[in-house]
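Example 9 (inverse folding). The structure is encoded as follows.
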């Protein structure tokens, strides 16, 4: 139990190259999650992120079984999930049921693939809960290339996407391609989710992609301020989760989730106090 608060050991571990690389990865993931998060929340896509992460897990499990790179497998699985969810759920009334069907199927196939995988058990566990040693320069290069692509596409479509997220009916009447933007955004979310699987794990990547943004939306209605706060909260959760996980050697996702939850509770209390004061 004492190792959970061994600051000397934590400082020693922070000097290791693979830990420093993981911290850089956490910063990139925090930026991605922070920027995409408010749009995910405004579009009610939290369940979609969970479904996408399960398909990213399935892709990673398939890559693990076939001896391929886990990051590439997770990325392929997430993109396929985003396209499938976008094409099968054209009506909002069908969206949750389609996600539930795809999620259950993907999770079942992924578990079956892990059963057939005869390699190290740590690889299986890390795919589900994240692991700091899963970062290498090949996965880092993939991360940076995908992150740059996501930010580039988002910079082009952000204004019409925000318009379509806030008021889709008016946006459609103004000639904004709402359906096409939804599909593109789903792919962007899928890519970002897949990138988080190796660090945070497939089961709890939702904590990084949604919780910081949900906390930010509790204290502000401004899209700009919500994005800034979401980025800040996501960075604190991702970087703080890695640092706290070093000494005990515990899964990163547990600490990322805990930090995100504490931030959300504080923002919820602040938002509620403001509402009571105004009332």
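The amino acid assigned to each position is listed next.
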């Amino acid at each position: 139990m004492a190792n959970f608060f061994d600051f000397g050991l934590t400082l020693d571990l922070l000097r290791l190259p693979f830990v420093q690389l993981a911290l850089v990865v956490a910063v990139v993931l925090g930026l991605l999650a922070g920027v995409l998060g408010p749009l995910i929340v405004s579009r009610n896509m939290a369940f979609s992120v969970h479904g996408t992460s399960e398909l990213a897990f399935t892709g990673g499990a398939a890559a693990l079984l076939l001896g391929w790179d886990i990051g590439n497998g997770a990325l392929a699985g997430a993109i396929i999930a985003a396209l499938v969810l976008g094409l099968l759920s054209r009506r909002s009334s069908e969206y949750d049921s389609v996600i539930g069907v795809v999620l259950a199927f993907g999770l079942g196939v992924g578990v079956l693939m892990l059963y057939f995988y005869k390699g190290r058990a740590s690889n299986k566990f890390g795919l589900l809960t994240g692991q700091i040693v899963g970062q290498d320069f090949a996965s880092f290069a993939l991360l940076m290339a995908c992150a740059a692509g996501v930010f580039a596409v988002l910079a082009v479509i952000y204004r019409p996407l925000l318009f379509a997220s806030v008021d889709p009916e008016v946006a459609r009447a103004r000639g904004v391609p709402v359906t096409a933007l939804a599909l593109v955004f789903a792919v962007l979310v899928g890519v970002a989710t897949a990138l988080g699987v190796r660090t945070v794990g497939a089961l709890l990547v939702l904590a990084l992609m949604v919780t910081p943004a949900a906390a930010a939306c509790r204290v502000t209605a401004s899209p700009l301020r919500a994005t800034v706060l979401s980025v800040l909260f996501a960075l604190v959760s991702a970087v703080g989760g890695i640092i706290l996980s070093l000494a005990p050697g515990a899964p990163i996702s547990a600490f990322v989730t805990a930090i995100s939850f504490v931030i959300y509770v504080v923002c919820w209390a602040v938002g509620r106090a403001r509402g009571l004061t105004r009332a």
